[in-house]
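Quick one: structure tokens for this chain, please?
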Amino acid sequence: MSTEATSRAGRTGPAPGALLLCRAEPDSVAPVARLLRERMLLTRAGQGWSVLVPEGGPWLRGEEPVDRVMTGWATALAVGAPWAVLALWWDAERGGYTLASGFRRPVGYIWLTNGTPAGEDEAMRTFAARLGLDPVLDVQSLDRLTQPDPASDARARLRGLLAILTRVGLSLPAGLAPGEPADRLREVVRDRPDAVPIEWEGGWETVRDELQVAAGRRLTPWLPWSGDPKARTLALAQLAAGLPLAAWGLRHRSAGWLTAGTLLLAHGALRVLYDLSHPRD
């Protein structure tokens, strides 16, 4: 265990927890989420949104900080999909978010447990732009979350962030809120009739078929087996981005970033293997 992980594991306070919010319907999220190879629960979270609740994670074993893992997972989900992924996380010392979308650099913000802002204001403006929030009213609301407020702790700040996102359709199920214990979060989702368990089933062909259905016509040219030149371009970009991410994850023993890099490499390699096994005339 790293010195940082040991230090965090020995501190008292709220247990680490996390939520993954995807700006897509559950049917589109499920096949991509399975590629993380982590046990999760998936349910609807409003109009055009879904939420993934991890059933475990390296942070629960004291192996890696929750923020680092969630940033890697959000990045891994976003690079293989046309929708944004928002990771909310909290631990004994801090709480915050990471927004990932495509190949763009993730953006995030952090508050200390007592609510003290510890991020850059520009991150909030980038956050608003990428999610299509109102550049005046919503940005003003976000700016207030970056100002000192002795009455608001990190949990209240995250809830304030979620309140702003209701304007773009987000609506978390009752009882599913930042700061709640992990077992409580899982219980809330497990009791919902539309809850879907997410776990790796060990078959790339099954995932491929599910992705084909979930992608629809708009994404079909980008899929590895489409035969379209766009898929080759995307594969080269994925290989170029995946190698340094995977190397960084290995060097720093970061499960989240290692997952992101591995997924990028896997997606890119899938296209290359498809080309080799299906040569053009």
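Residues 204-277 form one domain.
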